[in-house]
Amino acid sequence: MGRKLLWGSLALAPATILVDKLTGAGDVTLFVLAAIALVPLAWLIGESTEHAAEHTGPGIGGFLNASFGNAPELIVALFAVGANLPVVVLGSLAGSVISNLLLVYGITQIAGPDGARIDRRSLLVQLSLVGAAVVAFAVPTALGYTGTPQRSAVVAASVPVAIVLLLLYLGVVGRNLRRHRERDREREDAVEGTWSLTVALAALAVATGATAWVSEILVHSLDAFATAVGLSEFFISVVIVAIVGNAAEHGGAIVIARNGKMRLASEIAISSSAQVALLVVPVVTLLSLLFTHHLALAFRWSELFAMAGAAVIAAAVVWDGRSSRREGVLLVVAYAAAVVGFYLVGGR
């Protein structure tokens, strides 16, 4: 019954797009429709990834989910760059890293079996990458703190940081994928009823495209929603936009964790955070050079401290190499504390 409902609710995505294009519905209505429509899309991405992982192994499967799942963050960030909204860009990307490490990974731990083995080595490598990114971000952030954050000098300092992080990510992830391929070479054949790899990847692509489209509608209606609820642009970006952008990771990780595949579920959450920090952020920074308004990586210090703290807490949870529902609860509580902190910080 639940699966039939999810399959049927996929119709909400095209319905939301049609309402946006063909009617005069208000922004608050569009926001609610888009938010609801993202839920079954996230489930479909998780379902497709699980089927793909039967052919590729959990390590590569987690990478695929993170890659497809982070497409909305990239698209939303580029739209925000074009609209000269650096607060939305930086806030949503920082919030994405934080929510993946604390909220998504925490819920994954809660939803999955207690004591299941996870890939400690791979996860710690990716958490180290997040830590390296935070250290690198501190350079343009410090420059931005001494003057106008988005001035040309800070942009100039951000470009080499973006290039170094991008090269670091490609090098480490390439090595990780080779290790996963070697380790998973002896895996068992896919179970009966598994989609073919072509079908799984096609479903991933379609679901990701629809997620990006619906996410764009949601983001464009966020201003009216923020006004209606009385929240700052910074808070909306770092919490709501980030969670919406992570809908695919949420759905994918939870579905897969509930099926007992904690290695894959944990790979999705942690690899997604590393991918945002070392791939999405640098790519957005470099592509912004093609826009009228360039992006400087001048984060708020609260954003940097929160990203660093999230990486440290997640590493402590990963350290023993096994899942734990109790630690999952602690991760979610830590995320709630971060949200409260962002609310108290106020506008950018």
Enumerate how many helices there are, as a single number.
Answer: 15
CATH domain class name of one domain? Mainly Alpha
Tell me which CATH architecture of one domain applies here: Up-down Bundle
- The coarse silhouette is globular
What is the tally of beta strands? Answer: 0
Strand residues, percent: under 5%
Q: Which bin fits the share of residues in helices? A: over 70%
What's the topology here?
Layout lengths: L1 H8 L2 H11 L4 H30 L1 H12 L1 H12 L3 H26 L8 H26 L6 H32 L13 H24 L1 H8 L3 H13 L1 H12 L3 H26 L13 H18 L6 H21 L3
Helix pairs in contact: 2-3, 2-9, 3-4, 3-9, 3-12, 4-8, 4-12, 4-13, 5-6, 5-9, 5-13, 6-11, 6-12, 6-13, 6-14, 6-15, 7-8, 7-13, 7-14, 8-13, 12-13, 14-15
In short:
The chain is mainly alpha-helical. The chain has 15 helices and no strands.
Keywords:
single chain, 348 residues, mainly alpha, A middle domain of Talin 1
Polypeptide structure, described:
The protein is an all-alpha fold and 348 residues long. The chain has a domain of 236 residues: NCX, central ion-binding region (A middle domain of Talin 1, Up-down Bundle), CATH 1.20.1420. Helix 3 runs antiparallel to helix 9, helix 6 runs antiparallel to helix 15 and helix 7 runs parallel beside helix 13. The termini are far apart.
